[in-house]
């Protein structure tokens, strides 16, 4: 986990990057998000989410403010950026790979 800058509360912004190897199963998804919440990261970078476009709502959690998701047309690939409510972030542009391999969010 890396830290940089500061949030509104004055603490450093904490980044976490994790290959989750699929979030389709409800039990696994619950365990992964429970662990992510305990780590108290401000910006989460998730790889291999394996979610379709219709499934991106599964990434919504009460402590997550913004979700950016790049997906593929089947349950493979996929990346997501989750930004916690502690971070004030206003994106100016989002570039999403149609093959679900990357997403770029600019402020």
UniProtKB/TrEMBL annotation:
Domain Endonuclease/exonuclease/phosphatase: 16-98
Keywords: DNA damage, DNA repair, Hydrolase, Magnesium, Manganese, Metal-binding
Cofactor binding, note field: Probably binds two magnesium or manganese ions per subunit.
Binding sites annotated in the UniProt record for Mg(2+): 19, 48
One GO term describing the cellular component: nucleus
Keyword DNA repair assigned: yes
Gene Ontology biological process: base-excision repair
Reaction catalyzed: Exonucleolytic cleavage in the 3'- to 5'-direction to yield nucleoside 5'-phosphates
UniProt GO MF annotations: DNA-(apurinic or apyrimidinic site) endonuclease activity; double-stranded DNA 3'-5' DNA exonuclease activity; metal ion binding; phosphoric diester hydrolase activity
EC assignment: 3.1.11.2
Presence of keyword Phosphoprotein: no
Names of required cofactors: Mg(2+); Mn(2+)
Family indicated by similarity: Belongs to the DNA repair enzymes AP/ExoA family.
Protein name per Swiss-Prot or TrEMBL: exodeoxyribonuclease III
């Amino acid at each position: 986990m890396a830290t940089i800058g500061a949030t509104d509360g004055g603490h450093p912004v904490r980044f976490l990057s994790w290959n989750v190897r699929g979030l389709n199963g409800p039990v696994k998804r619950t365990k992964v998000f429970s662990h992510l919440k305990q780590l108290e990261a401000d910006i989460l970078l998730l790889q291999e989410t394996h979610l379709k476009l219709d499934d991106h709502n599964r990434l919504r959690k009460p402590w997550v403010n913004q979700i950016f998701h790049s997906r593929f047309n089947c349950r493979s690939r996929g990346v997501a950026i989750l930004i916690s409510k502690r971070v004030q972030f206003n994106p100016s542009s989002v570039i999403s790979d149609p093959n679900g391999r990357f997403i770029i969010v600019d402020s």
